[in-house]
Amino acid sequence: MTATQTPAAGTSLTLPAAAGATRSAAWQDRAACRGLADDTMYPHPTDAAGIETARRDYCNLCPVRIECLTAALDNEGSAAARHRHGICAGTTPEQRAYMHTLLRQGRSRAEVFASALMPPRRRRRSLDGIREYYEEHAAPADLDGHRVWSGKNGLDLAGRVYTPNQVAFMVTRRRAPQGWVRRTCDVARCVAHLADERDRVQQDGRAAA
């Protein structure tokens, strides 16, 4: 994602490169997304199709993914995910926020980048491990159907970073979540009772009916 683009209406832009004189850095001139419509690389967080299109059609083919991701992380600093915007080198704001956490914890940039920039073919093979990972770390807690997560708080897999809730949601619901996945019960770290943005919209609609 180049610094010459702007986010969709209603959002503020965090440039993936320093502003001012460096705005036309040489790497940005070679970016696959250069010159695209403003909203192409800024899909709504719940627009799974838009996010995948940006990754597949532009980021996966881009020759400057390392430069783009480096600039995005450097410029966004310690900002929370909600203050980061756009798809950079195939990563979402949530993924970059987690990558920043890993870097602060002492993980090397090379290690963190290697996962995020994994080639698409290896990425698809790696996704097969999600169910196995879920079964290993989501243990049944009682007869009410709760499953308590015992693994780490982020899974680096297939070039993406997944939260425990996202892992559990994909396994149990057999679809990619839209927006934030939140627990709907009172049991701490339960990953059996979850809802994404699509679920919440549907629940609100039923409640209003």
Verbal overview:
Residues 3-24 have low confidence and may be disordered. The radius of gyration is 18 Å and the shape is globular. Helix 7 (129-137) crosses helix 8. The longest helix is centred in the middle third of the chain and has 12 residues, at 65-76. Strand 1 (138-140) and strand 2 form a beta hairpin. The protein has helices at 26-29, 48-57, 65-76, 93-104, 109-116, 120-126, 129-137, 164-173, 197-208, and strands at 138-140, 147-149, 155-157, 160-162, 182-183, 194-195. The strands form 3 sheets. It has a two-stranded antiparallel ribbon. It has a two-stranded antiparallel ribbon with strand order 3-4. It is mainly alpha-helical and 209 residues long. 31% of the residues are buried. The chain has 9 helices and 6 strands.
Summarize the structure.
The protein is mainly α. It has helices at residues 26-29, 48-57, 65-76, 93-104, 109-116, 120-126, 129-137, 164-173, 197-208; strands at 138-140, 147-149, 155-157, 160-162, 182-183, 194-195. It is 40% helix and 8% strand.
Spell the H/E element sequence: HHHHHHHEEEEHEEH
Uncertain stretches: 3-24
- Indicate the structural class: mainly alpha
Taken from the alpha-carbon principal axes, the silhouette is: globular
Order of the strands making up the biggest sheet:
1-2
* Biggest sheet layout: 2 strands, antiparallel
Terminal CA distance: 42 Å
